[in-house]
């Protein structure tokens, strides 16, 4: 895990469910094929209704047409981020699109667990609501050891909740590395 | 200190005397289930992490049920079924329900109990969020992602954070116009779509214990829509009779200790609950069918792991019998066994299938998840434009059933059937 994560913000609202993150019709592509998996990046967050895509103004494409990488690296979310299905394609699609961290008010537990166990990115929880505080495109910096999020555009600093129980898995880089450390797998 | 059912199952599977909410423990897994959407990804990670020649930890404990994208011309979807076939052959797995064979089942959460894979006191993980349905059998069952599933495939264990338990008690048998779907939509309206995050939801009281096993499955099925980790219902004669009719495997039920500690206890009188709907675009956007009366509908949909079981179709048929639908109505049996039931179960001399055909409903030729989650664009019943639909399914977030401009109302099979007849949302009491 990097100590400092920098990037442009993409702001979403509450209850962003996995069908909005990666609509079900796209769940057919292979995640093992290096070329085909790029399609998950291409369609990441394509299910978000246009008016809610990139707050506060909306109508901001997360991934430009004919591309699979997003110009945004950090998602700011509201409550219950990632609710809905257990599809690991959701955090993986976001990672393929280039997301390095999500900072939300709260998470649905399977999405949170998948993000950590799959080692896709770190799902941080903010201590306050950041939707409305941060604008899509703002320049953000997360200081992991300090537990802070700095909005370099507005100059404001926000605190993040400690990672708690999952810190060991995040540090290990995912559940396989963690299970190896716990002696359940031969290295 | 006393334990809840959920704590007991997890403690036993971790080889411990007790488990306390918040503990992180490694549990032994009794059944791992996967399907055509998440199976290929899981298999990919399994091979990468354990090596191309690796074998699953226990071939009797891995169950693979293709069900999501079956009746489609999508070539990627067909390729994914081939990935499952190759893996099953290579691993010699006995519990694979292949497409296009007599073994094909349909929706995994209904197929699991039909095939005897859900047993009291066990731990079941599945790569699908509605795996929680199996809590109806008094076991710990929850959804996981591909990575966790691949780890289980190799070692038969997974770490779990022991959840606190929220208890929901219902007093009194259900009035004739209510179904379990109304109860769970009512609860989700009360606590919200994140009201049970990281927690177990236990359902009890004489109102719950008077429910059939299928209705109990509906209750547990939608705990995920409240953010719950698992749903669970005490084991009784109804559970045991069902399970013993499906499997000879031994199992060990658990019960709450008298001094078990709960996060919270909510008590409801079933007679106070109304036929309930979840309005667009969230399962917790609660209304009653009466309040929504007059809402015009393009479509009605009866199917899925939530509302596509035989009892759901019997309920719908009771209302549809002798009527014509005004809304386009789609009937999708969850499994092949349910589909057979449509052809053999009769109400007043007519089969359910005949009742639906006579009412003008369209019946799917195959059992699957179909349009509950949209799926490929040629999926039966998929909402491809800005339609308004009332559905017995489980989610109504934007785009869930296809187009993100469509509007979906969730309701019980009674309410969906009554609304299909009128072409607008209708309280089923008008027909019962």
> Radius of gyration of chain A, Cα only, in angstroms?
16 Å
Mean pLDDT of chain A: 96
The helix tally of chain B amounts to 14
Outline the biggest β-sheet of chain B: 5 strands, parallel
Considering DSSP H and I runs of 4 or more, what fraction of the residues of chain A is helical? 10-25%
The two chains with the largest interface, and their residue counts, are: A-B, 45 and 54 residues
For the record, the count of structural domains of chain A works out to 1
- Alpha-carbon Rg of chain B, integer: 21 Å
Q: How many strand elements of chain B? A: 20
Number of domain modules of chain B: 2
Strand content of chain B: 15-25%
Largest sheet of chain A, in brief, is: 7 strands, mixed
Distance between the ends of chain A: 20 Å
Q: Which word captures the global form of chain A?
A: globular
Q: What CATH architecture of the largest domain in chain B do you see?
A: 2-Layer Sandwich
Oligomer: heterodimer
The level of helicity of chain B is 25-40%
Name the CATH class of the largest domain in chain B: Alpha Beta
Q: Stretches of chain A where pLDDT falls below 50 for ≥5 residues?
A: none
Quick summary:
The complex is a heterodimer of chains A (187) and B (432). By secondary structure, chain A is an alpha/beta fold. Chain A has helices at 18-21, 38-42, 89-96, 109-117, 167-172, 175-181, and strands spanning 4-11, 74-76, 101-104, 122-125, 139-143, 148-151, 157-159.
Describe the structure.
The complex is a heterodimer of chains A (187) and B (432). The two termini of chain A are 20 Å apart. Chain A has a seven-stranded mixed sheet. In chain A, 21% of the residues lie in helices and 17% in strands. The mean pLDDT of chain A is 96. Chain A is α/β, with parallel strands linked by helices. Chain A has a single domain (4-181), classed as Aconitase, domain 4 (Alpha-Beta Barrel). In chain A, strand 6 (148-151) and strand 7 (157-159) form a beta hairpin. By secondary structure, chain B is of the alpha/beta class. Chain B folds into two domains: 5-267, Aconitase, domain 3 (2-Layer Sandwich), CATH 3.30.499.10; 275-430, 2-Layer Sandwich (Aconitase, domain 3), CATH 3.30.499.10. Chain B has helices spanning 5-13, 39-50, 75-91, 108-114, 146-155, 180-191, 206-209, 213-221, 237-246, 304-307, 310-320, 336-344, 352-359, 413-422; strands at 24-28, 31-34, 62-64, 95-96, 123-126, 140-143, 157-161, 164-171, 199-204, 230-232, 264-269, 276-278, 286-288, 299-303, 328-332, 346-347, 350-351, 362-363, 388-391, 407-410. Chain B has a five-stranded parallel sheet with strand order 4-3-2-5-6, with helices on one face. In chain B, a hairpin with a 7-residue loop joins strand 12 (276-278) and strand 13 (286-288). The radius of gyration of chain B is 21 Å and the shape is globular. The chains are: A alpha/beta (187), B alpha/beta (432). At the A-B interface, helix 4 and helix 6 of A face helix 2, helix 3, helix 5 and strand 7 of B.
């Amino acid at each position: 895990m990097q100590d400092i994560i920098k990037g442009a913000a993409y702001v979403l609202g509450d209850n962003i469910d996995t069908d909005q993150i990666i609509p079900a019709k796209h769940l057919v592509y292979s995640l093992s094929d290096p070329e085909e998996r790029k399609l998950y990046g291409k369609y990441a967050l394509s299910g978000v209704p246009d008016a809610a895509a990139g707050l506060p103004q909306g109508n901001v494409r997360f991934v430009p047409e004919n591309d699979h990488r997003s110009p945004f690296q950090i998602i700011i979310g509201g409550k219950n981020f990632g609710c809905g299905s257990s599809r690991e394609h959701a955090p993986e699609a976001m990672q393929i699109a280039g997301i390095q961290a999500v900072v939300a008010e709260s998470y649905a537990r399977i999405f949170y667990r998948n993000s950590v166990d799959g080692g896709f990115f770190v799902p941080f929880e903010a201590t306050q609501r950041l939707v409305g505080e941060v604008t899509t495109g703002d320049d953000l910096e997360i200081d992991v050891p300090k537990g802070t999020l700095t909005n370099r555009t507005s100059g404001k600093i926000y605190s993040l909740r400690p990672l708690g129980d999952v810190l060991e898995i995040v540090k290990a880089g995912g559940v396989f590395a963690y299970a190896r450390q716990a002696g359940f797998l031969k290295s | 200190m006393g334990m809840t059912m959920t704590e007991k199952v997890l403690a036993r599977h971790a080889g411990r005397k007790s488990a306390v909410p918040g503990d992180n423990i490694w549990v032994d897994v009794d059944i791992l289930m996967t399907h055509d959407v998440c199976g290929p990804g899981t298999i990919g990670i399994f091979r990468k992490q354990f090596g191309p020649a690796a074998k699953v930890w226990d071939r009797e404990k891995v169950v693979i049920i293709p069900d999501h994208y079956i009746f489609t011309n999508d070539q990627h979807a067909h390729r994914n079924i081939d990935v499952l076939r190759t893996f099953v052959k290579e691993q010699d797995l006995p519990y694979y329900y292949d497409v296009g064979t007599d073994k094909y089942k349909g929706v995994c959460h209904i197929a699991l109990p039909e095939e005897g894979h859900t047993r009291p006191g066990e731990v079941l993980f599945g790569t699908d969020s509605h795996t929680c349905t199996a809590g109806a059998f008094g076991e710990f069952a929850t959804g996981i992602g591909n990575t966790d599933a691949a780890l289980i495939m190799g070692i038969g264990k997974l770490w779990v954070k022991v959840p606190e338990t929220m208890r929901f008690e219902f007093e009194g048998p259900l009035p004739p116009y209510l179904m379990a779907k109304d109860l769970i939509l009512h609860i989700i309206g009360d606590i919200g779509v994140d009201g049970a995050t990281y927690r177990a939801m236990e359902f009890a009281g004489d109102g719950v214990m008077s429910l059939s096993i299928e209705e109990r499955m509906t209750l547990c099925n939608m705990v995920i829509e409240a953010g719950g980790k698992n749903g669970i219902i005490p084991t009784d004669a109804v559970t045991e009779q069902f399970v013993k009719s499906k499997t000879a495997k031994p199992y060990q039920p658990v019960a709450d200790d008298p001094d078990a500690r709960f996060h919270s206890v909510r008590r409801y009188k079933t007679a106070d609950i109304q036929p309930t709907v979840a309005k667009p675009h969230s399962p917790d956007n609660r209304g009653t069918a009466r309040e929504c009366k007059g809402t015009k509908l393009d479509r009605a949909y009866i199917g899925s792991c939530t509302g596509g079981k035989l009892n759901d179709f019997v309920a719908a048929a009771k209302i549809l019998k002798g009527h014509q639908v005004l809304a386009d109505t789609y009937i999708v049996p969850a499994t092949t066994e349910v589909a057979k039931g449509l052809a053999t179960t009769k109400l007043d001399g007519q089969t359910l299938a005949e009742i639906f055909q006579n009412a003008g409903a369209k019946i799917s030729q195959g059992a699957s998840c179909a349009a509950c989650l949209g799926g490929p664009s040629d999926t039966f019943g998929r909402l491809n434009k800005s339609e308004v639909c009332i559905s017995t399914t489980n989610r109504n977030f934007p785009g869930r059933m296809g187009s993100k401009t469509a509007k979906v109302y969730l309701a019980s099979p009674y309410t969906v059937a009554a609304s299909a007849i009128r072409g607008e949302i209708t309280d089923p009491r008008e027909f019962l």
